[in-house]
Write a structure and sequence with these properties.
The protein is α+β, with helices and mostly antiparallel strands. 37% of the residues lie in helices and 23% in strands. It is built from eleven helices and 14 strands. The strands form four sheets. Strands 5, 6, 7, 8, 9 and 10 form a six-stranded mixed beta sheet that branches. Strands 12-13-11-14 form a four-stranded antiparallel beta sheet. The chain has a two-stranded antiparallel sheet with strand order 1-2. A hairpin with a 5-residue loop joins strand 6 (168-173) and strand 7. Helix 2 packs across helix 3 (34-46), helix 4 packs antiparallel against helix 5 (110-120) and helix 6 crosses helix 7. The chain is elongated.
């Protein structure tokens, strides 16, 4: 590429970063004089790139809205972020259909065509890094309202370790603010409710561990390799880990319904549902809670659970804790009182 063309593209990238850029600043960044900067701006205008001239003491150039999308200049991290966002949007059902002509709609999602365009022009080096991340990533469902963005360096290092089955040393901060280090055999990356997780086996104990990527400060790949379990499901491991995290209360219920019915109010990230033994215990009838799935939750508060159990509209039994029985009874009393309260104006 001729140097003037390269500088024109660099000028476009600088303008796309936002704000007003003075002529002197642009000249310094491009290594040319101010007259050449103005000539480069004319080149962009000839390409229909909407560059605006701003007068005044702090004037210069800025990128304005145009009738079409100008060429985008993305660095490695930006391109990776855009493509991962498109993949996550497609998984969450947030992409739209691309028009295929007047009055028609293509079956190809706009997100897919946008991702294909970006991938087509990626350097092979960056394309390989992207494929490594996507190959190690699992989604549990639509994202949550609050997003926690991981550091790109951490994400790429973990994705490479997952892909090549390499152990890693992590430096991280716990939810309570304590800093620690851990050696992990990572099995997979999981995107859940707006957050990213890595799950694997801790060394040397082999215990299951899950870490939030936005709490990891540094990743260092260690020598050696490991063989992950053949039946490992990273997404299921993360959801189970969230549902069994140590909180104030351990709740154990029996609910007379199918796993699908229970999951409508108690998703996998909240509760662990275990099917009853087959065949059931002898001398027990269908109304015996021994026939019902066992539901286990670890929660910090109990006050929200009575309403959830009522909304399930299924018979249930409380194994523990006893405090939950009192809360369910209190909700029942309030509902009974409300149901029998006379309407306004009644005598």
């Amino acid at each position: 590429m001729a140097r003037p063309i390269a500088r024109v593209l660099t000028l476009l990238e600088l303008l796309q970063s936002g704000g007003i850029r003075t002529v002197g600043e642009l000249a310094d960044r491009l290594g040319v004089d101010e007259r050449t900067v103005r000539r480069y701006v004319d080149h962009l205008l000839d390409l229909d790139v909407p560059v605006e001239s701003v007068r005044g003491r702090y004037g210069g150039y800025r990128l304005g809205p145009g009738y079409r999308m100008p060429p985008l200049m993305l660095n490695d991290d930006e391109a990776l972020a855009v493509l991962l966002g498109l993949v996550a949007g497609r998984r969450a059902g947030l992409t739209t259909a691309a028009g295929a002509g007047a009055g028609t709609v293509s079956e190809t999602a706009a997100g897919e065509t946008a991702a294909a365009k970006i991938r087509r022009v990626l350097p092979e080096r960056l394309r390989a890094r992207l494929d490594t991340v996507l190959g190690s990533l699992a989604f549990t469902g639509p994202g949550g309202e609050e997003a926690a963005v991981p550091d790109t360096t951490v994400l790429l290092a973990l994705a490479d370790a997952v892909s090549h089955h390499r152990p890693v040393a992590l430096r991280y901060t716990t939810a309570g603010g304590r800093r620690g280090e851990r050696t992990l055999r990572p099995y997979g990356l999981v995107a859940h409710a707006g957050r990213w997780y890595v799950t694997g086996a801790a060394e040397p104990s082999g215990e299951d561990r899950t870490f939030r990527l936005d709490r990891i400060a540094d990743v260092r790949t260690l020598p050696g390799a490991f063989e992950p379990p053949a039946d490992v499901d990273p997404a299921a491991r993360v959801l189970t880990g969230l549902a069994t995290a140590p909180y104030r209360y351990e709740v154990v219920l029996r609910i007379a319904g199918t796993t699908e019915q229970i999951r409508t109010r108690l998703p996998a990230s909240v509760a662990v549902v275990t099917a009853p033994p087959t065949p059931p215990a002898p001398a027990s009838g269908p109304d015996d809670p021994a026939h019902w799935p066992r539901v286990e939750l670890h929660v910090e508060r109990l006050d929200w659970l009575p309403g959830v159990l009522a909304s399930l509209d299924l018979p249930f039994a409380i194994e523990r804790p006893d405090e939950l029985r009192a809360l369910v009874t209190a909700l029942s009393d309030r509902l009974h009182h409300s149901a029998h309260r006379p309407p306004p104006g009644a005598t």
